[in-house]
UniProtKB/TrEMBL annotation:
Could act as a modulator of glutaredoxin biological activity. May play a role in cytoskeleton organization. GO terms for cellular component: cytosol; nucleus; ruffle membrane. Keywords: Acetylation, Cell membrane, Cell projection, Cytoplasm, Glycoprotein, Membrane, Nucleus. InterPro entries: Glut_rich_SH3-bd (IPR006993), SH3BGR (IPR051033), Thioredoxin-like_sf (IPR036249). It is found in: Cell projection, Ruffle membrane; Cytoplasm, Cytosol; Nucleus. Belongs to the SH3BGR family. This is SH3 domain-binding glutamic acid-rich-like protein 3. The keyword tRNA-binding does not apply. The lineage of its organism: Eukaryota, Metazoa, Chordata, Craniata, Vertebrata. Transmembrane segments: none annotated.
């Protein structure tokens, strides 16, 4: 796959995950960076793909991938976080 992908989920009971996903997409949209939103709740294979790319069998969304290069996960919040690496 090519291009920037943000792995997320539309089904979560975690306020933290919802907030992190919203923040990542808000930043990318604000910078007018094109990306594909991949909803891992639609298919377990997508969740497994996200975890394999992250190199963590327990990784949770949001996770960011550019092409086949893992860029990272949301780190922080409240304006002090960073979106990925290698963007």
């Amino acid at each position: 796959m090519s291009g920037l992908r943000v792995y997320s989920t539309s089904v979560t009971g975690s306020r933290e995950i919802k907030s992190q996903q919203s923040e990542v997409t808000r930043i990318l949209d604000g910078k007018r960076i094109q990306y594909q939103l991949v909803d891992i709740s639609q298919d377990n294979a997508l969740r497994d793909e996200m975890r394999a790319l992250a190199g963590n069998p327990k990784a949770t969304p949001p996770q960011i991938v550019n092409g086949d290069q893992y860029c990272g996960v949301w780190a922080g919040g409240g304006g002090g976080g960073s979106v990925g690496r290698g963007l």
